[in-house]
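Practice problem: predict the structure.
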Amino acid sequence: MQTTTLFDDIDGDHHRLEEMARSIWETPELGLHEETSARLLCERLEEEGFDLDTGIGGMPTAFVATYCDGDGGPTIGILGEYDALPGLSQRVRAERDPITDGEPGHGCGHNLFGVAGVEAAVAIKRAIDRGDLQGTISFFGCPAEETLVGKVFMARDGAFDDLDAAITWHPWDVSTPYVGRTLALDSIQFTYDGIAAHAGVSPESGRSALDAVSLLNTGVEYAREHLPDTTRVHYVITDGGNAPNVVPPSATVWYYVRAPTRDAVEFATEWVRDIATAAANMTRTDLTSRYVTGCWDYLPNDAVTDVIWETMDELGPVGYTDDDRAFASELQETLSDEELESTLEGVPREHAAEMSDVALYDDPIPPHGADEIGGGSTDVGDVSWLVPTGQFRGATWALGTPAHSWQAVAANGDFGIDGAVYAAKVLAGSAARLLEQPATLERAQAEFEAATSDRSYETPLPADAEPPFDVTLE
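Answer:
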């Protein structure tokens, strides 16, 4: 089919996409509590005739919306997210100006993320109705990406098992297919229970839970020397006691353990657990641990990625206006030189030269950095070990803008919405090509099978794990 028809459909629904993106931006919700955002997306899909399955993986804000022509054919999945970040409330201004101090904000662009996927799925559905395409399109509403929960629990529930391919995207400061790797992760909380006592009068009567946390953290610092350079271990003490003159009877520390592979994460996590047990023995406290969540590293699929790049190359630039570029320039002025240099170092030289004197760069950049391993983690990784998966970044921020920043929030509530329209077109065009090209899907599957021949996916979650509704980033 002609992808221009899909693109015209999305342009015709520009106002719907903008309304949804702005509504989610104005009502930011933390992971596993995105009731308003999820309902908005579900209503849009139901209106278009999609079959809806909610509560996936025991999460009320997780859902799958499916539309099928009834004649078989391949099934393509589009992944979407809509959770916000704590403490990033921000107006659309080029200075730090929270709408409400301490409240959440969309600093990662998830107000754009999910709505672009929904509109892409709607465009594919309409093409199926016209007889232009055959097969099934599914949109996956994935909550709590920021805490790496949603897709992991959905995967354990079998949500992605019937897909032939999955595609997704993420807001960024450049537009390019993502072909690098991310880090697998374990998220664990360690809680120690001791005995309270007067720290000055009778410390011998107490057993300090905070001492146990301190010993655990010290032990991990000594272990770092003997862990691979690519392993990352970081922590925060979430409960350390209430007063210096009371021996803390309870204390909790929250750990992230990251590494390029699940095997490497599990090795490092086992070491951290051993240290945690030793700290309990040294302080004569009781230890309980809680496995919050975990995820796999991202496994890019070149065959799916090639289709994404073909669509991006066909579309060309986003097409930002002079007003968009002016506001982006104001935002960029609030960034450090180091932040811009970091972006320029991460792209091919010829594009870096073009970027050096602009604030908003919306030309698509070919895939690059296939051998790079990023320092972050994403639960898209779990999907990528179950089904051939491709993803891309879409330019929605001023160049140099770091994710999880107030500058990103401001852009996501303004010109970033036009970037989401572009992303919807890339998703729709890529999905259409995959539905129309059985040979591409066969090549993607063969590549996937070769890449997973020595390690098949197993959920990192314990059998009794439940979605951590009480755990949010702070």
